[in-house]
């Protein structure tokens, strides 16, 4: 659902937008950040109509878009009073752990908002994808044990996941997993050899022509 | 603290100075005759001069005192009132009544422009000032109504009744209506603003009022969205203005507009953690101000420009503090000025001093507002600083995430490869924490950067690291190693050498010149 131009500022449309947002969360409608932004903006204008559990779910949905900045965009719109109470506050705590890459605490904290998470299908998988992505920009190889800790998966589930990812370049060699190489996890010897630009030597050429 | 409330209907304006009457009559005549140079000169020179001479402490005569001179022309009276209220806000603390009346005036004025068929010409600087002042008064009202502590009960009652006044949705809807009605988006998408820039904003044969108001409302929307913390919509609403391909950007001709555009854009990028984009915008605008500063030295706007300049250097310090790699993309003089103003503080920011980030943020940030009206029945619930404190706490959290990393970076700089346990020992932490910190460091350098296209919020991820590393596992021993890349820079001497060559040749030339001319240059060489 597109929210452009004058649609952004119509409080009468709040119900329509909320419905679309719910559909996005359950996966029946295509994801669009604009709708959540519009809903949150209207909530800032009238905090009394804000539905906290919808906020919590929408934030989780945005968080699952990491590394895109959707969560950051939404959280700036919410005033303190909407964020201070459950269920939004535990989602905010979750997000803080995730942004700090504190995965032990993150997985531990998911226990406290199990209800909200269960209403956002695909959240855990999306987060695992994001963790794999962060790993792939930092590591070239990582031990299975670390991988299991970060993804909070036991060994059989982990093997299953890695089997699925084998096509994308993830290979298991004994206790070590090799990650696909990309621009971020390879050492590039940057030789910043600046070519000599013409502007740099132009004055010399000019003066030698003048004296010739 | 007593405010000086100017209620125009109580003051006796028996005598309007003759010169003021003349000003009004001439202004009216020039507007009717669409004589732009004259209108511009009256607006930019005569109006401030008369304000200074006759109305230093108080307002201009109310519109009723002068309406006979202009045949009660409705549109001119609206324009006059716009100037009147602008002056009132600048010189005095406006009462609630004055604020409401100014709001009504703006509604009427924009209503006429949107629905009537206006064919007058007005200077673009006036049109920009109209939008700018409109938003300034909106901001001022939003802050005024949250300051419940100093107000009496009846004032609060009156405020409750004025909930339609300066309502944010109405403000945004007005801006949107101006944008839609003027068709500016279609026009700019078609030719990128070439026609506008070619004619200096005044396309011959047409009224420039609606079109330019539409144009300036694009910048206005960015501003309002940033004030409520809606950064991405702000950047989206700029479409189709392009911040990074500025060749045909009309705003360059109006410094106030250009500065506002870039100030809010770079702030939005900063809050969205897009440091390279923020750095680019700040670099562009600070170079611009450096170039045009002198032209405005006598202008009333000079102080404003200087203040914004200082604020933007504070924002640049924040950007550089969070992403040191940005320094290499800045122009020479911008970098030098930044080091002048923040040199030692920057070093402390690199080492993670959060207090300095806080200080710079407080100075550089815009005056945020909350969209919702305050809880009138509960004055202590949330103060006027609520919006600012919220954005500040989110920003400081962003800073806190990276402020513990500088020590790690310093150790990494010393090695080309180091085993994880050894590094953990050096930092006196355990391996799990270290792994987290390394991943965090890598993540903090993984930024979105604009890479083309009309959408200012689009971009692709790039690395903005000043040190590159990755973690590997040595297959033989199973030990984890942190491998760093070398950045080898071959210094290029070409520029330095050619400069010296030219200087040397000049000296030699002077020495070999005929004796008469040689005497003076030979002395000058020393």
Automatic annotation (TrEMBL), chain A:
The entry's keywords:
Cytoplasm, Initiation factor, Protein biosynthesis
User: InterPro entries this protein is in?
Assistant: ARM-type_fold, CSN8_PSD8_EIF3K, eIF3k, PCI_dom, Transl_init_fac_sub12_N_euk, WH-like_DNA-bd_sf, WH_DNA-bd_sf
Major subcellular location class: cytoplasm
Q: Which residues form the PCI domain?
A: 31-195
The entry's localization annotation reads: Cytoplasm
On the tree of life, the source organism's domain of life is: Eukaryota
- Family indicated by similarity: Belongs to the eIF-3 subunit K family.
Q: What does this protein do?
A: Component of the eukaryotic translation initiation factor 3 (eIF-3) complex, which is involved in protein synthesis of a specialized repertoire of mRNAs and, together with other initiation factors, stimulates binding of mRNA and methionyl-tRNAi to the 40S ribosome. The eIF-3 complex specifically targets and initiates translation of a subset of mRNAs involved in cell proliferation.
Oligomeric state and interaction partners are given as: Component of the eukaryotic translation initiation factor 3 (eIF-3) complex.
UniProt protein name? Eukaryotic translation initiation factor 3 subunit K
Species name for this entry?
Answer: Tetradesmus obliquus (Green alga)
Automatic annotation (TrEMBL), chain B:
Species assigned in the record: Tetradesmus obliquus (Green alga)
Q: Give a short account of what the protein does.
A: Component of the eukaryotic translation initiation factor 3 (eIF-3) complex, which is involved in protein synthesis of a specialized repertoire of mRNAs and, together with other initiation factors, stimulates binding of mRNA and methionyl-tRNAi to the 40S ribosome. The eIF-3 complex specifically targets and initiates translation of a subset of mRNAs involved in cell proliferation.
- InterPro entries for this protein: eIF3l (IPR019382)
Keyword annotations for this protein, in alphabetical order, are: Cytoplasm, Initiation factor, Protein biosynthesis
Location within or outside the cell: Cytoplasm
Q: Which domain of life is it from?
A: Eukaryota
Describe its assembly.
Component of the eukaryotic translation initiation factor 3 (eIF-3) complex.
Just give the chief location class. Answer: cytoplasm
What family name appears in the similarity comment? Belongs to the eIF-3 subunit L family.
Q: Does the keyword Cytoplasm apply?
A: yes
Please report the name of this protein according to its UniProt entry: Eukaryotic translation initiation factor 3 subunit L
Q: Which Pfam families match?
A: Paf67 (PF10255)
